[in-house]
Every structure is written in structure tokens, then in C-alpha cells.
Amino acid sequence: MIPSPLPPAPGPRRRARRTGALRIAQVLLLVAAILTTACERRPSGPSPDEVRAQIARLLPGYVADRKGWAVDIYAAFAALDIEPSAQNICAVLAVTEQESNFNPHPPVPGLGRIARAEIERRAQRIHVPALVVRAALQLESPDGRTWERRLAAVRTEKELSDLYEEMTDTVPLGRRLLAGANPVRTGGPMQVSIAFAERHAGAERYPYPVQGSIRHEVFTRRGGMYFGIAHLLDYPAPYDRPLYRFADFNAGWYASRNAAFQSAVARLAGAALDLDGDLVHHRDRDVVGATERALRALAPRLQMTEAEIRDALEISHGPRFERTDLYRRVFELADRKAGRPLPRALVPRIRLQSPKITRRLTTAWFAERVEGRYRRCMAKARSGRR
Description:
DUF1615 domain-containing protein; mainly alpha; DUF1615; disordered N terminus; 19 helices
């Protein structure tokens, strides 16, 4: 029996290729082992289904369609790339409960009367006689009722907003009298500012098909929660308590930080300032407010010019203000004068003004009420109860 011939010995090139392939395989195995170990060590976060189940569990017991609410809330977190932690979920639920009791279209007592008064004020400002306004409202609308009757019948802000748009397009003098003057400025289950929603949608991609307009989207549950969550959580804030973020939801981004800055300025200047978190008139650069006047008096101590002070104040509604020389020097001097670090956040002292409000309410009242709801939600989250 003739033995089979041995295979020829590999040449130098074949040996090099085989050695190279072996090294590549070894490297790939090593990378796979590292990745496997890292995955084993890194705890995986909850799945979307688990997060939605947690949201549904944390909703107040009276809320209907818990699954639908959980779906829309989770979708907003995902679209905005905000962590759906228990703290963030409870913050959203607390604000929503305070603002609407989870009613996408909360009724407003006397809304028709409020709207009629707003139309009359608008007419007076643009010198339209009251007789003309009354005559226009007595005309028959497309559904057979007079505009006056329909206006008196509205119960929710969505109804009023839709009616206002219809009147703008249909009523004689409607565009002159009503265009750009829709009295409904907030909407949806979180009562988010419609102006904020329109700005946000202009800067970031809105994740849903727009039905009509962004104003219309605010009055849907999905849109109202999306824009409300964006207003509450989609900005970096240097706060050690959720109370201040709740105050910002009511008074505007960074209002709590800015109120603390105003307090420090008042201490340094020996001046009484309204701690409202509004540091500068953004609409009119020629207007100098009380806070800016106090800072100008401090300019030599701050080693800054009036122009430098104004430039810093112009970005006081954003995160970069904390990194300005103005912010840093004011607190350095104020901390030294107080002999201790002063608070970097204070709830703004603002009385809430709205035709819908019939009691004496403040931003502090709102923030404290929401924080109480937040704490109850967090206790429920920690206990695991339904």
C-alpha cells in the first residue's frame, strides 16, 4: 500500500497569511470576551414595558385609561431622551395632577365670560366700538347658533381656542379684532405654555404628525404631555430640590436660580428687589430694570462695565449665565459679606395673575403643592404598592 503523500509544506506567504489570520481570530475572541464581561457586569435598565408598567402603577388611583397615559408619558421620555427614573416620572405625575387631575381638557368656571371680557378689552385697545363688537357676536355662526351663544357655552380651553380660531376666520372684522390675540395661552393636561410649545417645536423635531397646528397638538394628551415634560425636565438645572424645578415650571426656566441671584444682589447693594427671577427686559434693550440698576451701582466693586453687565444679563434665561463673571463675582462678594455660602436657588416671589384665578395664589403655593404630590408619589414608588 502506497502511503498518501504528505501535503506540501506551506510557503513563506502562506505561513504569513495563516499567522495573520490566527492573530486576528485571537484579537476578535479577546474583544468578544471583554464585551461579554462588560455586559454581564453592567446592569441592564428596565425595558419599555417595565417602565410603562411603573408609570401606570404610580398614576393616582382615580385615573382612567392608565395604559394610554403610560404609553404617552413613556413616549415623551423616549422622544426627549430623558431618563424615565422614578424621580422624573413622579415629577411629571405631580405637575399633571396639580394642573388638571389628569384631564386633558379641564373645565374652567366662567370661561365664556372671561373670553367675552378679553374680546371687549382687545376691541377697546384697537379702537373698535363696543356696538360693533356686540353686533358681530349676534350674527349666526355656521352651526346655527349666534357667536355670542357659542361663546357663552364654552367650558374648556380647547373649546375656546377652537372657537376663537373659527371666529377669526369667519366673523366680520375677525382678523383685525382677534388675529394673534387668542386668550388661551396654556393648554393640555400639564397646562403648558402654547408659546413654549411652538418655540420648542421650531427648535426640536416634534415626534408626531401635526394635526392642524402645534396649538392643536398641545390640547391632545400625547402633545400636551410631550411639551409639558419638555418644559419641566428638558433643561439642565443646578437644583438640589425638585421644588425649584416645579417653581420654574410655573415661573419660567431658571427663575429659581435667578431669584437667588437677585437676593444676593439686593444684599450687596442694600436695595429692595422683587425676587421674581426676571433679571432683564429682553424685549426692549433700552429699558433698565431694578436688578440691572442695582448691578450698575455695583459695577466698580464687580470690576465690570455696564455693557458687560448687560451682556451677562442677556443670557440669564439659559444655563451659561452661571459661568459668567457677573454671576461668579456677585456671589463671591455676597458670600463674603454674609460670612457663609448663600443659597443658589430660591422660589420666586410671584403672585399668579390670570383671569382664571380667583384666589390669591403664588408661585410658592404652586411649587409647594406639587412637591407634596411628588413626595407621595416617591413614597409609593419606594414601597412598590399600587
